[in-house]
Amino acid sequence: QVQLVESGGGLVQPGGSLRLSCAASGFPFSTATMSWYRQAPGKEREFVASITSSGGTTNYADSVKGRFTIPRDNAKNTVYLQMNSLKPEDTAVYYCNAKWRIARQSWGQGTQVTVSS
After folding, report:
1. Tens digits of per-residue pLDDT, 75-86?
2. DSSP bridge pairs for 59
3. Is the pLDDT assigned to residue 102 strictly greater than 90?
4. 117: which residues sit within 8 A by CB, 6+ positions away?
């Protein structure tokens, strides 16, 4: 079955860095567009970043441009979210999302990121 398993979340001080990982299985990862979303308490889930299947195109929310990157390793069926210069407003549950073929998509269970001193 399709699985997306996020890891790497935790507590970090403002200005710090974290790298999230999303390990995928059960679908053709190398053909999927992969994305990260996040949801803060009391807010709707929002787009953070995406990367196309080949890695040739990435997109970022304005709030994270210049601080976050979204590399992928198709040999390991894994997508990452490298987060630098973290701010308290980056605190949220971060979700991995996969989209492939037509209208096929899946979500991970989420990983908590807390930015606080």
Report:
1. 999 999 999 999
2. 50
3. no
4. 13, 14
pLDDT, residue 47, reads 98
SS (H, E, C) the chain: CCEEEEECCEEECCCCCEEEEEEEECCCHHHCEEEEEEECCCCCCEEEEEECCCCCCEEECCCCCCCEECCEECCCCEEEEEECCCCHHHCEEEEEEEEECCCEEEECCCEEEEECC
The candidate with the shortest Cα–Cα distance to 77, out of 93, 100, 94, is 100
- The residues with which 20 forms a beta bridge, in sequence order, are 81
d(CA 81, CA 53): 15
